[in-house]
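User: For a benchmark we're assembling, each entry needs the component sequences followed by a predicted structure for the full assembly. Here are entry 17's components. Please fill in the structure.
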Amino acid sequence: MEILIACLAVLAIALTAGALLLVFSHFFAVRKNPLAAAVRECLPGINCGACGYRGCDDYAEALAEGGVKPSLCIPGAQKAADAISTILGTEKVEVEDVVAFVACNGHCEATAQIAQYAGVQTCRAASMLFGGPNACRFGCLGLGDCAAACPSHAIDMADGIAHVNTALCLGCGLCSRTCPKQIITMLPQEAATAVMCSSKQKGAEARKACRNACIGCKKCEKVCPNGAIAVTDNLAVIDYTKCTHCGLCADACPTGCLKKVFFPDIPEDCDCKELIK
Amino acid sequence: MENVKLLMVILLSAVFVDNYVLCRFLGICPFLGVSKKLDQASGMGVAVTVVMLLATALTWPIQHFVLDTLNLGYLQNIIFILVIATLVQMLEMLLKKLSPALYRGLGVYLPLITTNCAVLGVTINNIIDGYSFVESLASTLGCGLGFLLAMVLFSGLRSRINESKIPAPFRGLAVTLIAASFISLAFMGFGGIVENLFA
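Assistant: Structure for entry 17:
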């Protein structure tokens, strides 16, 4: 009987509170843009931040207010962009498919460690201690901060460097923002060649530190018919807006740091998209 | 006259002597979390004061007319938390409607007033101290004002800390905590003053 009274008392108070809240929410409801909710439905909702907003909700609100491109959601890709522009009644915009690319090929056979690091096993911590234990100050530390940040488990650590499984990569860029060495770049999916090195040391020193380093010899720069490659700070940089994917640079590269790459499209029915939900 | 004097003693001792943040160490989370800027700190202080007052106004009758008569004193914590949570929800809706800027500034700390131990502490302490309804409100107002005072003082201090050169190991939370301890020490000096003010 006492339990019953206690339950009833709590229930009565809770119901009164609930009713009060209901009345309040009715009178003080903030009118939301109804478009925002509709737009939000088109976004994947993984809050990756690739669009530059704090999350899918924020991006949806910005879209509903107008003046923002609907093509910024990279995991949502063309499908989301099309759906959003249909809702907003704007023109369709093409989404540039990008893929994460680790610009370092300093695996354990090509380079060495000059110190033993026994601290906290994250790249961030290691890089704070004299730039990490690697012979090359610019290269991948291989402790997997990017792999931990990746929402689709597309990054594996092997032979001391990170490898991106491009079939799983959503292109959100979280890894790129996490990497303390800033060696992960977002490449357009149609890229055919890429520089697999981030070392800005002079040729001889870079080569001494790592067998696969870019030595800044400018052979690629000379062989490129479109002037798409420029060696700046002892490192070849490809301008993908000019690149025609001929692959001549990769053939000319003496150290093999400028490689041919192939990024397949993410299949529509890829189970990685299911995993994220 | 006697009554007014008693209320003043309760109010002032709640502000200075038994300051909830600096002497009883309740409600430290928003004290450290939203004391970076003066406007946010004072906004938080006012919000907490309002919640405290409303909570006391509701929990005191509930305790005396519902819980005590039904012999359900052991439900005090649950019921009080329920009431406070409801109030905070209402306040959140109000702020969202009336002052979106403050709503964004307070961020996660606004719903966290729900679990702010200072609010629950005030309501429960009023019951424990055996205050009447009016005395409870006076002590609550004092606690709220004390919280506001602590927030405003501390935000001023933090803006000065921000502009001064601090040795690397102390930067960030470390120096904030040390500063908080100094303010707390200073407030300990109020002990025994208020009772003699009206003697």
